[in-house]
Design brief:
247 residues, mainly beta, 5-stranded antiparallel beta sheet, 4-stranded antiparallel beta sheet, globular
């Protein structure tokens, strides 16, 4: 991973991927991920995650998520971001601006440790769904719980997962126009920090269980209050519209 991309130079070992707003081009290498951008299209940062196979960005590109089938190994080298606490995990979350490791996570299920592309397709990726303001990242353990993590440290919200028997999937509620404008004003410095504070909401659903109908519920965060629930009959699947993607 050198500092510039000459026309005749090999760009990537695996694939390339644009960030959601087109600010960065990610190139995937055996050693990790490199991000390129700016007027001269130079390397902005790099993230050392050996044998990385999948990546994902948060909506406003502040965080990068990487996955490798090779479990993380702790190292005493000052060049390695991983410690004993990270050993055995497969997923890493990075701060795009600083280049620092935020946190690592285990990933279980079919294909989690496989180099076989067919097996990798069975992985639930992206692993995290981000709230539209990037305040939270969450993932579901089907049938059991939704785990919500709060930025910038990605510590678990309330120090415990949200137990929901039978939960199958969830999605964040997108921002309305006024909320989006307030957040963008805060981000570009034309509004005071905290002026865009909003209550996030997520919708989740549970399938029919014995004599209980399927159900869709709306939850507020961080309070975890259930705002509304609706029973659904003779339903085999539920799909939520995707959250707003900033342009």
């Amino acid at each position: 991973m050198t500092d510039s991309l000459a026309p005749a130079q090999k760009w990537t070992d695996l694939f390339t991927q644009w960030s959601p707003q087109g600010t960065y081009l990610a190139t995937i290498h055996l050693q990790g991920v490199a991000l390129w951008g700016g007027a001269s299209f130079e390397r902005i940062n790099r993230f050392a995650h050996p044998e990385v196979k999948l990546i994902d960005f948060s909506p406003y590109e502040r965080y990068l998520v990487t996955w490798s089938p090779r479990p993380i190994e702790a190292s005493n080298s000052p060049m390695s971001p991983f410690t004993d606490e990270d050993a055995g995990n497969n997923v890493a979350v990075w701060d795009v601006v600083t280049g620092k490791l935020v946190r690592t996570f285990p990933m279980v299920g079919a294909g989690a440790h496989s180099n076989d592309p067919t097996e990798q397709k069975r992985i639930n990726w992206p692993m995290f769904k981000w709230s539209p303001d990037e305040k939270y990242a969450a993932r579901v353990t089907p049938g059991q719980q939704i785990s919500v993590y709060e930025t910038p440290t990605l510590s678990m919200l309330g120090k415990k997962s949200i137990k929901i028997e039978g939960v199958f999937d969830f999605e964040w509620a997108p921002m309305n126009d006024a909320e989006r404008e307030a957040l963008e004003a805060e981000r570009n410095g034309s509004a005071k920090p905290g002026s865009s504070a909003r209550e996030n909401k997520l919708a989740f659903w549970t399938p029919e269980i014995t004599n209980q109908p399927a159900r869709v519920s709306l939850m507020a965060l961080p309070s975890r209050a259930i705002l509304r629930s609706k029973n659904l009959f003779n339903v085999h699947d539920v799909r939520f519209l995707s959250s707003f993607s900033p342009s």
